[in-house]
Amino acid sequence: MRRRWHRLNAWLDNRTGIQTAVRNFLYEDIPASSGWHQVFGSVAIFLFLVQAFTGALLAFNYAPTPGDAYNSLRYILTELTAGRLIRGLHHWGASLMIVVVVLHMVQVFLYGAYKKPREATWIAGVVLLLVTLAYGLTGYLLPWDNRAYWGTVVATQIAGQAPVVGPYLSRLLGGGGAVGVVTFARFYGLHVLLLPPATLLLIGLHVYLVRKHGVAPAPGDELVPAKKFYPQQVFKDTVAVAVAFFLLFAMAVAVRVPLEQLADPTDTAYTPRPEWYFLFLFQTLKLFSGPLEVVGSVVLPGLAVLVLILVPFIDRSRMVKVTRRFAAAAFVLLTAIGWAGLTAAAVATTPQEPQTEAIDFSAPTDWMQLSPEEMAGVAYFRQENCKSCHVVGGQGTPVGPDLTRTAIHKDAAWMIQHFKRPSIVRPGSSMPPIQLTDAQLNSLAAFLLKLNANNATALDNAPEFATQGALVYQNNHCSGCHVVNGVGAKVGPPLNGLSKRESRGWVEEHFANPQKLVPDSIMPAYRLSPKDLQNLTSYLMALPE
Amino acid sequence: MPNGSTSPGGSLTRRNFYVGAIYAIGALISAALGLPAAAYLLFPPKAQKADEWIDIGETARLTPDVPSEMTFRRNRVDGWKVISEKSTAWVVKGADHTITAFGPQCTHLGCAYHWDDGKNVFLCPCHNSLFTIDGKVKSGPAPRPLDRYDVKVEGDQILIGGLRQSEAS
Fold it and tell me: How far is Cα A239 from Cα A227, in angstroms, rounded to an integer?
């Protein structure tokens, strides 16, 4: 067996040279001073591979047009096993990749590893940094939610401001300032067709140059015998890769990547914010205004990139030990402080969302289809802790029957009697009576009658503000005049899609004094507690069109 | 870091440790990415909506033991979309007034078959599969009987549900 294996390997090597090539790659000499500080390059390549892998997986279930992108992403998140995990890996992988690429750059900078003859290696690295940022910029649009849309509107406007090339750049990005189908197609094309092969070529060039000039030695390395890359340094690289991957995986599992509502170009209240790694640019922009704005948006960032590229030509001094490169350390420190300051300022000035509860569209939103009465039923269901005894679609404690089994559902009258005196209606039942009013029991029955295996997730996914808002809605008999999801009287206007018609402030003011805003309204004024007002308004603003 | 160990034996163990760790970490990461990827690609979507019942007409329209082709529109979930599409069923009212509805495709390679009045068989023109009026294979390459829709009759109305694949005969 073993001999056969060896013969197969020898044959393969003879025909392809693969083993010799791998051996040459692995048994490369590296300076004696090499060690843990040089792991970042390998981690960056690893993260690129993770992005390529998860990106391809996402593409298998993603429709790259504005009409379908959002729904297909929701399908990935809500319908597919591990879809959320894979999107999480891709999302947080992008952030982690930028962190690692910058760390790699800082290490090379601190050690002065860009010096002659490694200038080209450094420049290829700077271009790779820009490519990484370009992924972030183009990928940001692809979920096609409000955040993606409005963030990209700002980014393309900035590109349009560039001196001389601005208008052309703007046209190249597919629209005179407007973000639409063309921009989307171009961003997608860049993100998945152009940038990945460009990255591969640049990584190839970068690694080739590293090999050509060898890993940069520290002063004194020439007196000590060189080491081999494999296995000790490869082991260190692998451990670093493992740490990065563990962090990434933990982020993907623990931190939910939000999905906002579908991109709405008519939304006038949306405040766009770029991804965290672009916040410093965003803040720089705010330091300049009027005709000087272009300085902050294009000139300064452009100069910064130019300086980065020119670093090896600006600093042409001899190689010294890293511990004696005070100027470099000071420069890194100042840049870090500047970056952190700008980012902190941007975060601090981010306006708090105007009380609108954020709806997580990355989870099923079937709760939106419930009528107010049913939604109030969800509130009572939670309040009465029904789940402590009942299973709902496989979740919960199986003391009582599974409530999604339609066979146990009788009519509302039976259910209400059962709620009041369980052991009389169903002898032998150990269920305690539910202490609610008839109207409340009605809501609970309405919800339970509608409950089935398909919509059981609504029970978990309905946000607190919606169930509480529906309670307020029911208690004030709003459905006596208004229709929500097809239920209610048509005296007043239907309330579905309210958020498209009115602002939150308007709705709240309207409760206090309807006639002030709509003179011929017959709606009475409602004096609600601040909490009730907030929940009810949030609930109404969340109603689908 | 000291470069290797002083004794050849020690150096070998350390080397083995490095190599082992590299492979172990590699395998772990591959599994952590590969298993979710396999689940993502292979597992069916979670929400398998129950098939809706569609009213396709009255039983009175059917002549006993004469299959009739009925078309109806139904909503089908296709990935992230719900598509309203035209579907067809071959509906048979038996002598005992039981209603059967067959899926419109031959179980061999999916061609559309039709009822041959003269020969009293369902005939698939692609490879000459013949099915009897109760869907059984009479001759030809078809591997199993015709697929059937769930059917229920409410009053006089025929309601049609999901299409069930037949068992191989």
Answer: 19
Q: Comparing A280-284, A491-495, B95-99, B125-129, which segment has the lowest mean pLDDT? A: B95-99
B18: nearest CB among A61, A82, A232? A232
Domain spans in chain B, listed from the N-terminal domain onward = 1-43, 54-164
Number of Cβ within 10 Å of residue A27's Cβ equals 11
Rounded Cα distance between A363 and A357, Å, is 15
Question: What's the pLDDT tens digit per position in A78-96?
Answer: 899 999 999 999 999 999 9
Residue A331 belongs to a domain: no
Binary contact (B21, A235; C-beta < 8 A): yes
CATH label of the domain that carries residue A124: 1.20.810.10
Taking alpha carbons only, the member of A151, A142, A132, A140 closest to residue A195 is A132
What's phi and psi for A3, nearest 5 deg? -65, -40
| Domain-ending residue, one of A244, A263, A282 | A263
Q: Mind telling me how many Å the CA of B4 is from chain A's nearest CA?
A: 9
Burial (CB < 10 A; 0-12, 13-18, 19+), residue A127, is middle
Q: Is the CATH code 3.30.465.60 the one for domain B54-164?
A: no
Three-class secondary structure of residue B84 per DSSP: strand
Please report, rounded to a whole number, the percentage of residues in chain A having pLDDT higher than 90. 46
pLDDT of res. B4: 41
Q: Which amino acid is at B24?
A: A
pLDDT at residue B7 above 50? no
From A400's Cα to the closest Cα of chain B, the distance in A is: 25
For chain B, first and last CA: distance in Å?
72
Q: What share of chain B is helix, strand, coil (3-state, %, to 5)?
A: 20, 40, 40
The verdict on a CB contact (< 8 Å) between B39 and A68 is no
Range of A375's domain? 366-541
Cβ contact (<8 Å) for B25 and A239?
yes
> Is B83 within 8 Å of chain A by CB?
no
- Joined together, the tokens standing for residue B108 give 């061999």
Are the CB atoms for A132 and A97 separated by under 8 Å? yes
Query: What tokens appear for A506 in the block?
Result: 């308007």
- From chain B, pick out residues whose CB is under 8 angstroms from the CB of A67: none
Q: Is the pLDDT of residue A412 over 90?
A: no
Q: Tell me, what's the pLDDT at B5? A: 39
Looking at beta carbons, which residues of chain B come within 8 Å of A71? 80-81
Residue A525 lies in a domain: yes
Positive or negative, the CA dihedral B86, B90, B93, B98 is negative
CATH code of A485's domain: 1.10.760.10
A57–B41: do the CB atoms touch at under 8 Å?
A: yes
pLDDT digits (tens, 9 = 90+) for A338-367: 999 999 999 998 776 654 567 778 777 888
Q: State yes or no: pLDDT of B11 exceeds 70.
A: no
Domain boundary among A233, A263, A293: A263
Among A86, A262, A365, most B C-beta atoms within 10 A, so best to mutate, is A86
Examine the domain organization and report whether A388 and A251 are in the same domain: no
Note the Cα A415 to chain centre separation in Å. 43
Query: Bridge partners of B160?
Result: B54, B151
User: Looking at the 3D structure of chain A, how many domains does it have?
Assistant: 2
Q: How far apart are CA A100 and CA B31, in angstroms?
A: 23
CA distance A275 to A97: 14
Is there a single domain that holds both residue A258 and residue A378?
no
